[in-house]
Specification:
Blueprint: H1 2-25, H2 29-33
Length: 44
C-alpha cells in the first residue's frame, strides 16, 4: 500500500514539475504555433 501511494505521489510531482519546466522553456503549443505577427493577450 505504501509503495502505491508513493507511486501516486511521484506521478503528481513529475506531472507538475514537467508542466512548470516546459512552460518556462517555451514548449507550450501557444509559443510554438504563433509567429511574431500574432498578438496574444497575456490575460487569457
Amino acid at each position: 500500500m505504501k509503495a502505491m501511494l508513493a507511486g501516486f505521489a511521484m506521478i503528481a510531482v513529475v506531472a507538475v514539475g514537467s508542466n512548470l519546466v516546459l512552460n518556462e522553456a517555451g514548449f507550450s503549443s501557444q509559443d510554438q504555433q504563433s509567429g511574431d505577427a500574432v498578438r496574444l493577450d497575456a490575460d487569457h
